[in-house]
Write a structure and sequence with these properties.
about 325 residues, Metallo-beta-lactamase, Chain A, globular, binds zinc ion
Length: about 325
């Protein structure tokens, strides 16, 4: 497949309603084999950037709004603080205007503690649940000592950072059914955020399980990009929920060789039935998504630990990164009509 001089890679990709995802992957592989060079990926003023960070076994997502404001959702384990700060620096972020802690488990709040201590944070939103661990105690102490405004996030809330980006809280409900101290409910009471930017939509579900997925499946959760619940656990990512979300692409946060066996085989099977393009932090490293008014694009920093992959650059040579630079893009205009 050859490009005409007036064409870019973007001309070859369309929305999910036009091109089958499998065909898209085949096309991209052909382009990779052909050694074509992708267009520059420098951020423009109209870009929204999401980075799903490879923090080992844990979650951490940075979202940079088109107006430059930034949000951090979760922070991985304690030792991941520097990973977050490095990526923030790469993205030109000088402050997290909002930090969301989805729930009080260490693989989500651990890395936030160091962030609170050394990096400007505008405010913290969390589920309002209380754990008895030292990590959770240190998390609260860091918020208090650094005098960071704090609030609970609840279904129906919106997070206003950029007038062009809608950030809506879908969970937990206004009243936690089992109270705020029930460890069995920590996952299900995760803060869930749905993002909409133009035609682009994504959901960040934390570690929700079946009960919450069931509730959410009855609402408008149809999205382009879905983060798998609870690191790809078999007890989450239920078929009705995945069907309601019907994502084009999915991301799984899982640590390489993690002791939980994430992502579970049953989950991968359910996901494969929907045929989204799948990214995994244990295989793909950092996963960077850039959306603007006409398309979104996903780049990864590694395919496996043996491949030396440059950090995100303005120019990505696909021939050197046949799988690491899978690009997902599409023209929103094609399906507005
Ligand atoms: Zn977790």
């Amino acid at each position: 497949m050859l490009l005409r001089p007036d064409q870019t890679l973007y001309n070859f990709v369309c929305c999910k309603h036009v091109v089958q995802k499998r065909s898209l992957l085949v096309m991209l592989t052909m382009l990779a084999v052909a050694g074509l060079v992708l267009p520059a990926s420098a951020q423009s003023d109209s870009d929204l950037t999401i980075v799903y960070l490879d923090v080992g076994q844990g979650d951490s997502t940075i979202i940079r709004m088109p107006n430059g404001k930034a949000m951090l959702i979760d922070g991985g384990e304690r030792e991941q603080t520097q990973t977050i700060l490095n990526m923030a620096a790469d993205l030109g972020i000088k402050e997290f205007d909002v930090v969301v802690a989805t729930h009080p488990h260490a693989d989500h709040i651990g890395g936030l503690i160091g962030v609170f201590d050394v990096f400007p944070v505008g405010r913290v939103l969390d589920s309002g649940q209380f754990h008895t661990t030292k990590t959770f105690e240190d998390y609260l102490t860091a918020i208090e000592e650094n005098k960071i405004p704090y609030a609970m996030a609840r279904d129906g809330d919106t997070i206003d950072l950029d007038p062009t980006v809608e950030l809506r809280v879908l969970n937990p409900p206004a009243t936690l059914p089992f109270g705020s101290h029930d460890p069995d409910q920590f996952n299900n009471n995760s803060v869930v955020v749905k993002l909409a930017y133009g035609e682009f939509t994504a959901i960040f579900p934390g570690d929700i399980e079946q009960a919450t997925e069931k509730r959410l499946a009855g609402s408008d959760i149809d999205v382009d990009v879905l983060l798998a619940s609870h690191h790809g656990s078999r007890y989450s990512n239920t078929a009705p929920y995945l069907a309601a979300a019907s994502p084009e692409a999915m991301i799984i946060y899982s640590g390489a060789d993690n002791t939980y066996g994430y992502p579970h085989e049953e989950t991968l099977e359910r996901i494969s039935n929907l045929e989204p393009i799948l990214f995994r932090t244990d295989l793909d490293g950092h996963i960077k998504l850039v959306a603007n008014q006409t398309h979104y694009r996903i780049e990864t920093s590694a395919t496996d630990k043996t491949v030396v992959v440059p950090e995100f650059q303005d120019l990505v040579v696909v021939s050197l990164l046949p799988i690491a630079a899978i690009i997902v893009t599409r023209r929103f205009s094609a399906w507005r009509s």
